[in-house]
Amino acid sequence: MDFKVADLSLADYGRAEITLAEHEMPGLMAMRARYAESQPLKGAKIAGSLHMTIQTAVLIETLVALGADVRWASCNIFSTQDHAAAAVVVGPNGTPEDPQGVPVFAWKGETLEEYWDCTQQILLWPDDENGDPQFANMILDDGGDATLFVHLGLDMEKNGIAPDPASATSAEQKVIFEALQASLKTSSDRWTNVAEAIRGVTEETTTGVHRLYDMMREGSLLFPAINVNDSVTKSKFDNKYGCRHSLVDGINRATDVLIGGKVAVVCGYGDVGKGSAESLRGQGARVIVTEIDPICALQAAMDGYQVSTLDDVLDIADIIITATGNRDVVTVEQMTKMKHNAILGNIGHFDNEIDMAGLESFPGVVRKTVKPQVDVWTFPATAERDEHAIIVLSEGRLMNLGNATGHPSFVMSNSFTNQVLAQIELFTKPEEYPTGVYVLPKHLDEEVARLHLDALGVKLTTLSEQQAAYLGVEVSGPYKSDQYRY
Ligand code: NAI
């Protein structure tokens, strides 16, 4: 088995945590029980690009229990939990000397070159016994990087020429272009074959879903996609309650500052912003929200937060968190105006929310790494201001996974049960999903929620026939129209 992880000797520790997580992931365990016999994913070769955490380990082993072959990479250079990666490679029945699990290509602290190499490793499978090249036939994506690579690779092969790294507009794009150039030298039809093999992709997060709808609008989307993010039991739970847990976890592990009494700014009041603001308020911070959307701004105001612009509150903010999924939300000029030792972090998917390139190239700025994923950046004194510093978390990449361990198992069980159902839908019913972007039907969304009620001691009220008829729904659901917003 080929794989690349930090240290297989961590497998026992990983397995112990996976066992604890399984108890907290009733949705995934119900999938295993329900589909153990019918093996709906038999024949699926899933390329997974999603944070390689303990919770993801339970997802991977669920996909395997349903018959799939799987190869996995992380979708972020800092988010891998090395003990989880080791345990998945070793597998429940293997040993570090004789690993029998799933090929994982992920470790905490990858370089960008390593990251994109790992992404290729999950799409290109080892040759079969006849020496014929093998490829993934399903993608499970978080943020869309695996999907992006297949689309770029196919584009390149159609044009017969790889994009010139000199034309890249960012350091990361340069790395991608270089990887594509190297790939074209090895084979001229590899990505054509991968694109043909892929039956579909299931996408985990808001930012990846934006990319999919963009490709669909442009007419460039190559295969069907299920937007898992917009299952209610994903975005209204993981994005909100997950961040409510993992945002302050990240700040605490990174800095251990007392949050109570501090002024915290949350940029963006979507699902992630709502959970983030609540988590900071729960610690006693005075929370200020920034928004560009009047509806979300009004929601924030009615939830009791001050709503302002970042520029207006820079001089009082102790903690600044971006949660927009947008670019250039905090500029380097704004960083120069922050309080001494203000904490700056991003919980959105990509690192372009904070102008890290501008910070790195700012004249005279000095970076000191306090510990992995915690950097103090000191700005030189100017005529107006003495030398001052800011504390940047996870180099501007999602800090709840870089500085802490992401969302806890129970909430991820909801997200990942949607992922499993979406993989089954696309793999087993290709005729029902022509190329396009879909969400799971509402009865499956309600089913995911239902699977998590018992564990919390929830007693659900059952509709009478008369009540159901009065509301115009079936006793067994679905209970809401597709327009309902929860
Ligand atoms: P969303 O679309 O619900 O919310 C984003 C909000 O930001 C919107 O209300 C939008 O109006 C606002 N916004 C956009 N530009 C802005 C600006 N310049 N200033 C202030 N506000 C602005 O998206 P959601 O689901 O909250 O996701 C946000 C990001 O977090 C995405 O990148 C998503 O992929 C990521 N995410 C991260 C997770 C994590 O564990 N770290 C979990 C789930 C999602």
Instruction: Name the ligand types.
Output: 1,4-dihydronicotinamide adenine dinucleotide
Shape: globular
Class from secondary-structure proportions: alpha/beta
Q: What is the terminal separation in angstroms?
A: 45 Å
User: Got a strand count?
Assistant: 17
Q: How much strand content do the residues show?
A: 5-15%
Number of helices: 19
Main sheet makeup:
8 strands, mixed
Helical content band: 40-55%
EC number: 3.13.2.1
Protein name: Adenosylhomocysteinase
Keywords: Cytoplasm, Hydrolase, NAD, One-carbon metabolism
InterPro entries: Adenosylhomocyst_ase-like_sf, Adenosylhomocysteinase-like, Ado_hCys_hydrolase_NAD-bd, NAD(P)-bd_dom_sf, S-Ado-L-homoCys_hydrolase_CS
Task: Give the structure's gist in a few sentences.
The chain is an alpha/beta fold and 486 residues long.
